Amino acid sequence: MGDTVRWGILATGGIAERFTTDLQTLDGAEVVAVASRTEASAKAFADRFGIPRAYGEWAGLFADDSVDVVYVATPHHAHREAAGLALEAGKAVLCEKALTLNAREAEELVTLSRDRGLFLMEAMWMYCNPLVRRLAELVRDGAVGEVRTVQADFGLQGPFAPDHRLRDPAVGGGALLDLGVYPVSFAQLLLGEPDTVQAHALLSPEGVDLNTAMLLGWDTGASALLSCSLVADTPLTAAVTGTLGRIEVPRGFFFPERFTLHREGHEPEEFVSTDAPHSFRHEAAEVMRCLRAGGTESPLVPLDGSLAVMRTLDAVRKRVGVRYPSERGATRA
């Protein structure tokens, strides 16, 4: 891998636009191709961003010898197929979160990447955010003592029409995979995979979760109270409480501009971002760093961690009764 990392963008929706906008501000990053289900969509995206090649089908992107890494920005239900085909074509992959619809599909992708010796990373940009990394470092170093509780929420006001993708079970709709993945990933960043999972949800007529509460438990006695919603504008905050203090993260906990450490006998200590927090630059830079070093996964977003999060999301769905059409007849969610 040379100094320049050549990117291919798969899908042309809003998150692909935001990612590409940020990616093109990174030194050493070059977007050389884009693919969509239709040639018109791919060409419009290419024209907007000055991308030299546009493909109206995925195969063209995967066969493009100039592409080093593919960014998969399709809806959830297509992650397994798209990322799998890219890996089979010998491409490194950055795949949007949640990594797949379920843990079974995620395990298949991870096995494929490891068998082929190819880079794969879930696009959990929160884990690459410098301030979130600092928070996790403080917790690991015992700044709040032994962690006892984690709280986090992510909710949107809505309402979303029945034909919106967030209400469509066929594409992995619902609050959990789009929004709940953030609080679950935040809790597991600090505490690892939970030993127990409880959940309660309001389901839509289509059968996806509209409002979900989760209580995760660890044998250490720690717990996490998490929620996600498509019907309520929640605070979007997070808090970590331990035996010696607590950390409070204000609105936008997954791309924080600041957080505050509170400890008995000490003045509150504020940590402030010195870089643009609401940016995909950090995760893209991490992918490029790993590729240049010859790595096949990122220590910031390890594949085993992504698998653990998917297992938790599966457990939540099992408890609230959400099952996607593609899982019918499967032995497990």
What this model shows, in words?
The protein is of the alpha/beta class and 333 residues long. The chain contains 10 helices and 14 strands. The chain has helices spanning 14-23, 39-49, 58-62, 79-88, 103-116, 125-128, 130-140, 175-191, 281-292, 303-320; strands at residues 5-10, 29-35, 53-55, 69-72, 92-96, 120-123, 147-155, 196-203, 209-217, 223-229, 238-242, 245-249, 258-263, 269-272. An 8-stranded mixed sheet has the order 8-9-10-7-11-12-13-14, covered by helices on one side. A 6-stranded parallel sheet has the order 3-2-1-4-5-6, with helices on both faces. Helix 5 (103-116) packs antiparallel against helix 10. 49% of the residues are buried.
Low-confidence stretches: none
Structural class: alpha/beta
Radius of gyration based on Cα positions = 20 Å
The count of DSSP E runs of length 2 or more, i.e. the number of strands, is: 14
**% residues in beta strands:** 15-25%
Number of helices: 10
State the end-to-end distance.
Answer: 38 Å
Query: Level of helix content?
Result: 25-40%
What is the structure about, briefly put?
The protein has 333 residues and is an alpha/beta fold. Helix content is 34%, strand content 25%.
Task: Please give the structural blueprint.
Blueprint: E1 5-10, H1 14-23, E2 29-35, H2 39-49, E3 53-55, H3 58-62, E4 69-72, H4 79-88, E5 92-96, H5 103-116, E6 120-123, H6 125-128, H7 130-140, E7 147-155, H8 175-191, E8 196-203, E9 209-217, E10 223-229, E11 238-242, E12 245-249, E13 258-263, E14 269-272, H9 281-292, H10 303-320
Parallel strand pairs: 1-2, 1-4, 2-3, 4-5, 5-6, 7-10
Antiparallel strand pairs: 7-11, 8-9, 9-10, 11-12, 12-13, 13-14
